[in-house]
What we know:
C: mainly alpha, two-stranded antiparallel ribbon, D: 6 helices, globular
Amino acid sequence: MTILVLCALIFGVGMYTVLTRREIIAILAGVELMLGSANVLFIALASFSGADPGVAGAIGLVILVVAAAEAAVGLALVVTLSRRSKRSSIDELTEVNG
Amino acid sequence: MSFAQIMEFLRPMLSIGWLPAAVACSAAVAGLVADMFDAEKTGVAIVAGGLAIAALVSFGAAIIPVSASTTLITTTFGLVMTGGAFAGLACIVYLTAFLSCGTGLFSLRAGSRASAAALIGAGAAAGQVLLGASDILVLFIALELLALIAYALVASGGNDRSDEAAARYFVQGSVATGLAVLGVAVLVGLSAGASGYVELGTSLASMVPGAALLGGMLLVSALAFKLGAFPFHSWVPDAYETAPAGTAAFLAASVKAAAIGGFTLLLVRLMTIPAFLPLVMAVRIIAAASIVFGNLAALKQTSVGRMLGYSAIAQVGYVLVGAGVSPISTESVAAVFLFAATYAMGAATAFVALEFFATGEPTWDGSIGGLAGIASKHPAVSGALTVALLSMTGIPLTAGFWGKFFVFYGAAQNGLLWLVITGLVGSAISFAYYGRVIRSMYIDVSATGNEVAAEQGSDVAPRVRAWPSLIGAAVVLFAGIAPLIWGLSLVYALFAFR
Amino acid sequence: MSLFASNPWLAVAVPFVVAVVIAMLGRKAAGATQWIAVLAPLTAGLVGVAGLQGSVTPVSAPWLAQGSASIDVGVTVDGLSAIMLVVVGVVATMVVVFSVGYMAHDESKARYFSLLALFTAAMSLLVMSTSLVTLFVGWELVGACSYLLIGFWYRKPSAASAAVKAFLTTRVGDVGMLLGLALLWKSTGSLDIAAITAAAPGLAAGTATLAALLLFMGAAGKSAQFPLHIWLPDAMEGPTPVSALIHAATMVAAGVFLIARMWPLFEVSETARAVVLWIGVFTAIFAATIACVQSDIKKVLAYSTISQLGFMFAALGAGAWGAAMFHLVTHAAFKALLFLGSGSVIHGTGTQDIRQMGGLARRMPVTTVTWVVGVAALAGIPPLAGFFSKDAVLAGVFHAAPAAGVVLLGASLLTAFYAFRVTRVAFFGESRAENPAHESPLSMTGPLVALALLALVLGFLGGAILHALGLEAEGLETAVAGASVLVAVLGIGAGMVLYAAEFARADALRVRFQQLHDFVLTGWGFDALVQRVIVGPASTIAGWVYRVIDRAVIDGGVEGIGMGTRFLGKVASGLQSGETDVYASLVAVGFIVLMGIVLWAGR
Amino acid sequence: MTLEILAFALAALLMLGGAAVVALTKDLMRLVVGLGAFLLGVAGMFLYYGHAFLATAQVFVYVGGVLVLVVFAVMVVHRANGGRPLVTSQHDIGAAAVAFGVSGMLVMSLRESVGGWLPESGTSGSSIAQELLGGHLVAFELLGVLLLVALVAVLLIVGPGERR
Amino acid sequence: MTLLGLILLPLVGAAVAWIVGRSRPTAPRFVAIVTSVAVFGLAIAALVQVLQSGDHALSATTKGMLLVLDGLSLPLVLLTGLLGVVAVTASWAMTDRPGVHHALLLALEAAVMTVFLAGDLILFYVGWEAVLIPMFFLIGGWGHENRRHAALKFFLYTFVGSVLMLAGLIVVMMTVKSTVIGAPTTAIDLATQSWLFWLVAIGMLVKIPVFPLHTWLPDAHVEAPTAGSIMLAGVLLKMGGYGLMRVAIPYAPAGFAAASPVLGAFGSAGIIYGALMAFAQVDLKRLVAYSSVAHMGFVVLGIATGTALGYAAAMLAMVSHGLVSALLFLLVGSLYERTHTREIARFGGLGARTPRWGGLFVFAALASLGLPGLSGFPGELLAMIQGFGAFGWWMVFAAIGALLGAVYNLSAVRRVVHGERAPEWDALADITRSDTIAAIVLCVGIVVIGVVPGLVLRLTDPAVTLLVRALGGGS
Lengths: 98, 498, 603, 164, 475
């Protein structure tokens, strides 16, 4: 039960970081928090519900890899934004609207 | 060799569900290899060729008369449904991807075209998996794969605006991915690692209703974000406006069609559990909200891409009207698939035409006014764009009409008259913005005058390809008129759950 | 003669064909065509004569049939229509002959004669129809022909607007008539005159009165009874022969014919007859007073016609429809004579204003003689036709309402006065015209003489006419006759004396009652009133309704909805403000809301 | 028994501390360290549940790969405007409500289906390979495609750079 | 197969005209005239076949389409054929992109034919919508200053109306379980019928147009080219009336019975309102547009009575309005081509300068005010006397409307044809030969129907009696 509260709490913190941070790198970190805590939650629930460790491990690995790929693409975006248009905070990203 | 004999010969090969996906992926890889050798144009061409073959194969798989013995829906590895209606929708996914690559993606920067084409190839394959996914894990991976491709394709515009749109799309997308992971964690975690829809069915029934509901809603939200339905729509206008028109065609058409397929299957699975019955009310509310918001917001737009973005939100609303029927029957799913196909074809043709204009008319700033009098310069492509826009409005003699008709017919049978009227009035209002594009193309006199522009247009033509938009328009028109000649049953042929 | 008996529809077909032929030949053979035009009225007259011998077979056919219901149309010639046909035939022939001379130097003669023939066709259709529908068809076609003929010289703006005024005023009457038709169709289930007249007694009193009054509204419009009389004086803008034919003898008499034809309906409702009576009486005296002060010779005759029609309607109202028809016939003769006479005078002197005439007797002997015969008949001097018919009318009215009779006597006095006033001013005394007048050619004086003879003879045919109508002829009422002769002599005297020796006394009288004179001159100011109350504001109201209701309210509403949705669009797209955190929170909020809905809906 | 509880508490503490640092710190470098701590905590949690392979994968992929990438990105981004890289955040109640609303909903709905307070340690056993290549073959293949696509995507986003 | 020909022939003609037009600008009008005459011939052939066939109806089916031609649609098909020819002759001297113009005209004709021949609801709706596209391009392509707004307003206004109709049709198809047009075997329950009638009828009422829903018509007409106006007024407005009788009433008779007083009221109001507005116009073409609103008021009144004679009145009024408005638009268009203005105030005394045009205009005005002997009268008379039977004294408004009809028509004649000749038009040429021929054809039609309305009624009798019996309505 504690693991549930823990993961939920961290997921919340991650979401909060994404919603309030100005810099995209910090938002990226927030995303990592969310995905990591979700992965832990999965492993906990899987072991609680008596899933075969192999299957849980495999799915855990999938989630991990996907999160990593996401982070990589995110970083690529961050790098391009700062290189090409010298912008890193989301307050400067309001040109496309209406 | 009559048609049937050819089909008989091809039957064993066509029945392999994953063949199109394999062809598409290998074409993507081959494209990348070509790119390494700086043969960019051939790279794009290879991917386009691969997608064309994949489209043909899945078309064959969709309409070959399956002998009674073989199972209705052949499943691959027991996890991804292919064949029958799924092959039909897959064919549309591949066809629209093929049109997108067919344009040669000249509006992208040199050097990034082949990689973009490769992404589109892989994306189309992932699309087929997504639309047929009958396993939560596969659904999740395909969803994230398409998300990554989408971020990259939006950013492929190579200018500040596309970077900004991609970054914003990424932030939103990551929140959605977070929800998806949570969903997977809850559903798969609590059902002891069983992620396939079949086993999930049993465990969901026995699970605590609250948990099942939470898991289900998390996944539905993730998919709704992918569709661009109302509360999750914010990325759609920015992405379609800033992404290069060719890649936007892939995003708007094939990714959306695949997402609609995946969403409907998930709904069908979830609706079997009593706890989820109220989900239908949520889907209907999203549908109405999307229709109203999409149509209203599109009215004010001056940029064609952004207007098409908002109209995409409205079109998703119409799909959800079809999906929001309470006893989901094979007819209603077929109607949703049909609508997805007609909308995808319309959107693809429109964006491919915009690609032609973007590269053919460098001076065009992407605005509706900018297209003034273009019909006299490029009659064929303007005609194609007009057919696409009319189809998206739902005017008869185009495929869009049949899509909307069957969706609304199904919803009306379900007693949802208020939703049907909202949808219909919405699609009537939609001509206010679609029509403005047609009007500016045909009726307004271009600032530079038609004569001057006419001859200047001819020399730019060789590099820019018009045939993709013409193929798209031809398909849309044929699908619109054929049912009148050969009967309405034809309409279901491609999406029948035989 | 049997040809006409067996197929009465010739009276309509021949004139129609003649009209088409003349129109087709057009300007080229105008000379020849004008003589063909005579054929049209001749056929009508002959069919009428055949009708008088009572051997005509009615012809009818279904016109509008659908499902079980059908409306038939048909043509027949009974006593009443035979008389009318003869009148139309004779007068029209005289007018056509007269027009040859009168319109000699007009370049669009073809259009004139073709319209005349078309008019004859329409008049015959009106008169001979067995069903109210064909009657209404003839009724409106006659109105159209009068419109086209009044506006014949359409280059003159006054003629154009007079034509429109004529058509619209009669059309106002037709609104009532149409409703009358509808009421009769609903209550009797048929529009055949025979069927309606048979069912008339069975009708509820209210319906019968209402139907009668509505039909009378149409008749009042066509026969220029008060208040729908304002168009007739302006109709004088048309060529004089037209005025003679249409605005004296035939069309204006159609109203009287209609009530005579639908007599059983009127017989049933007392109130309807009373209305007809008093409107007739009032119109008679009202028009007579105005005629006394007119200076345009045709206007005098126009108001005189309105007044005489008033007499006829009074007779109808009093129940003596036979007398009314008799007066109609005689009036047709001598009024046509007077109009053609005035035509000849205008042709000779080139002006219509009697103050510029004078002493014409010496220059235009034939016109003068025939004019005097006509005027005498109008005044009701025995043995002329006017005396007998007016006496019959007065007798009938005295029987029904003595008060009305007295008023009519007054009107007769005024009639005699204005008749001889015009004669004295125009034909006797010194000539005030610059260039000397010349007598009209034979083609014009011929018809005058013929009509004069008719005016003499017709008086004695009263009995025969009444017999043709199926009524027995009463003898002469000595008292009434005496009174009317006395009144006539008095009028004539006053006229001659007042206007002797350079109108000294008349001018003095006018100066003393100048205000009253001007008031009466303008038709009791009624024309100006209508102009100010109805015609003037009509265009401003229409303009206002267009600007306010159509443009602002309805179209504004539609455009408003358009702009409203566009504004909502601006509001909706405002949501896409570009802040990334708003976008991200939308996803999370979206999920929470969704979850809430599902939980709330599922509880 | 207490050893396991100790290990669990340590991992939980690491995760929570790291998350708090990431959410609240002003200094970017301290944020990166916090993220590293969180990731280590996650690895510890995997170990606690007996998924040794997963823990090592987590350490290698994340702490090794992603963290380094993040540091690299920080260098690239802040090379431009120099000075200690500052990180600002607009705290507002609305965002907090939304974020913790989701987690609250999570806890509320999963409360019944998750048993007592004490975390159970999972049994070890590493048959991940059979699973990945057996029942979840499609997932494995798709994962491969996903990684390839991620690679191409990064190249596309960053752009061709100076052509050779 | 003649029925299928009626739809395909104009389409083929349109394609040929468009292709030919790209190379030789003078050729398309010949293609167009040949096609339209052929279509008219085919329509007459169909008439002969219907008369010979036993049950007074002709049907043809392909796998997808069911085409039916019976009493109700026959007069309108003939009218469409005739006006097709007239429209092409009216735009004979068209120099501005003639190929596309004639192609659009023929495509419009094909779409309208589909509506009148449609045997099933879906085809009916497909035709109903397909009409909007060519008209949109005609108004937009060849209009004047305000064409952009007028084209979009026309399309949107009628499209929203017809989309609501589609919702109604869907409900009908759903409850009746078949898409074939005709009195439903299982009657729809009364509760739904009451709102269903309005839902289905709204699209048609916008098209007619009924009084408050008419503001798109004047804008569309003022901007449409002459040929476009002829087709728009001559034929497109009839789809509304035809739709009411063919689809709305058979499926929701009880709903119609409840709605008929409202329809009658709006019909009569339309007569007065249209006439009043026409009287207030300064633009000649806008005047004729509002006259259409007045004439179609009689059609609605006729239908609202719900009796056999009432439907006959509606059919007569529609055919007559088709001919009269086509003639008026032809004349106004030819005047505009020569004077490039539609302002009534600037005209005057044209009768003298252009006698042929003046004569025709007077004839057209008399026909438009419903002079007996011309085609307008039978329809209007029947509508009024049947209306009196159904609605009683409300018919006073309709009668006053007929009076106002005379007011605006004659005042137009007075201001344009009669009176002093405006010096401006001293050198004005008279109406061209091609326009005269077209006008003469229309005039003959107007007189023939005016004198012998039985011709039309004999055709519509079987279908109308069938319709009335199905509804149990009055005679």
